[in-house]
Amino acid sequence: TSLEQEAGCERQIRPPLTKLPQPSAETPGLAGLKELMQHCWSQEPKDRPSFQECRPNTEEAFNLVNKEIDAAVSTVKQFLHENQGSNRMSSSPKPGPEGTETEGPRGTTGSHDIIATEMLNKLNLKEFPSSVPKKCTNLPKGIRAQGDK
């Protein structure tokens, strides 16, 4: 948003790097991305890397996690499929003033659940993973607990 742009660009307020997890085997490529991010924040525009200079760092980080992406997508799809009916009542669209289904302040029609499901179904996995990762440390505790059941 423009407020974020103003804070990040004009007033040069940056998020604290201490909020990021420590680089480890569970966060491959994070150290390189943190370093790249700090270079991008340089006060002097000439010291900031170009998009072409950023590409090798981002590709390297991507390649380190590429094998895990299909498994992560499958985990999310499975979770959404298993929990699809559990929150239908809370997320069902409510009739708007004109009798149409609307959600949120902008008055968009339809259900976010249906859109999310359709988008996930369109994702093409290279291959179906043989197993879902046992340890999903990046998931919120509530979701992790459901996966452990």
UniProtKB/TrEMBL annotation:
Compositionally biased spans, kind Polar residues: 79-93
Protein name: Receptor-interacting serine-threonine kinase 3
A GO molecular-function descriptor: kinase activity
Transmembrane segments: none
Coiled-coil segments: none
Keywords: Kinase, Receptor, Transferase
Region feature (Disordered): 1-28, 79-114, 129-149
Organism: Mustela putorius furo (European domestic ferret)
